[in-house]
Amino acid sequence: MVRSSRDYDESDVRIRPNRRGSRPRTKDRPKHEDAVVGRVLGVDRGRYRVRVTTPDGHHDLVAMRARELGRKGIVVGDEVHLVGDTTGAEGSLARIVRVGPRVTLLRRTADDTDPVERVLVANADQLVVVSALTNPEPRPRLIDRCLVAAYDAGMEPLLVLTKADLTDPAPFLEQYAPLSVRHVVTSRTADGIDGLEAVLDVLRGRVSVLVGHSGVGKSTLVNALVPDALRAVGVVNDVTGRGRHTSTSAVALPLPDDDGWVVDTPGVRSFGLAHVDPTRIVHHFPDLEPGTDGCPRGCTHDEEECALDAFVASGGAGPAGPSRLDSLRRLLRTRTAAGEE
Fold first, then answer.
1. 222 near 264, Cβ under 8 Å?
2. What is the model's pLDDT at position 117?
3. By three-state DSSP, how is residue 28 classified?
């Protein structure tokens, strides 16, 4: 006998339990009190190479970011807390569940109008600006930007000048003498790099980030400092005078005897400072800052009443004063233009 639809009632319908909603939701998250602490050495397509130190030594492992971290970024140098398989065995995969507080954070933008910050490295204490003295020619304004970024991040800067075998470094160093920025000069020889030991002396016991535009010899220097690094080395184009990008991502490498770290970064052709407040920029030109005492209130340091012109004319910033003031004003103009857009 066929029953009509009117003969059915709710007792005839089977209701399947909603398994997804059967467990009460909670905002409490696991505390992961047994998490292992490690340091991020490299990032590659959503996988993180992490070094874990134990009483018996250290080992590297591969980890992924836990969903509970959301969109929180993880970069080279971060201290992370891991759970899961932290043995580092082949095929194992740990989970990063927490990121520790950052002491320093080196950032840059594509240009001075780009609102998107690109974090290079966390928890480094020294920014090493590598520049060739020739082939390619040094770029003082790029170096100035790197120095501003270092001071703003609370990092100590260091200049490493390469290819001193091709030209005298003295004229270039005169530009930075008033800043008292530490520097090391290196040159190529038949036996390797002259001045390498001096570079090692200022890197030992520290976490140092190496930054420089392509072709300056940064990767050659890294390979000499860390012989098993095997960083690709590029050449300088004879027509454009520019180098080819060889490092594609930041990577932390241990110095011999684990006495410090160097972080090699991809070659840069620009170093935007959109994240730096324009009113603070002049404070990062310590050779010029004393000259601002005579400036009128609210001085932009790029106007007729600015006292920096007289300060530089009197030799207050040394022989390099005019070029340094020009660099400051170029930087301020780009930042002011970015703020007006």
1. yes
2. 82
3. coil
Within 10 angstroms of residue 175's Cβ, the number of other Cβ atoms is 20
Rounded to a whole number, what is the largest CA-CA distance in the chain? 112
Residue range 320-328: average pLDDT?
Answer: 89
Q: Which two tokens stand for residue 286?
A: 């310590």
Q: What is the pTM assigned to this prediction? A: 0.78
| Contact indicator for 90, 106 with CB cutoff of 8 Å | no
Across 167-191, average pLDDT: 90
Is pLDDT above 80 for 10? no
The radius of gyration computed from the CA coordinates of the chain, to the nearest angstrom, equals 27
Higher-pLDDT residue of 24, 255: 255
The two structure tokens encoding residue 97? 């569940």
Return d(Cα 254, Cα 258) in angstroms, integer.
Answer: 5
β-bridge mates for residue 252, sequence order: 263
Q: How confident is the model at residue 161 (pLDDT cuts 50, 70, 90)?
A: very high
* Beta bridge pairs of residue 105: 122
Degrees (nearest 5) of the Cα angle 231, 237, 238?
A: 140
Residue 101 · residue 329 · CB < 8 Å = no
Tokens at 211, concatenated: 């930054």
d(C-alpha 73, C-alpha 11), whole Å: 53
Torsional class of 258: left (φ above 0), alpha (ψ -120 to 50), beta (otherwise): left
Q: At residue 230, does pLDDT exceed 70?
A: no
In 3D space, the residue among 219, 172, 170, 166 whose CA is nearest the CA of residue 189 turns out to be 166
User: Which residues are 242's β-sheet partners?
Assistant: none
Q: Which domains does the chain have, with CATH numbers?
A: 36-99 (2.40.50.140), 105-264 (3.40.50.300), 278-340 (no CATH)
At 179 the pLDDT is 79
pLDDT of 45 higher than 80: yes
pLDDT, position 235: 43
Kindly provide the residue ranges of all beta strands, DSSP E only, lying in 143-260, ordered along the sequence: 156-162, 182-185, 187-189, 192-194, 207-211, 251-254
**Average pLDDT, integer, range 286-294:** 93
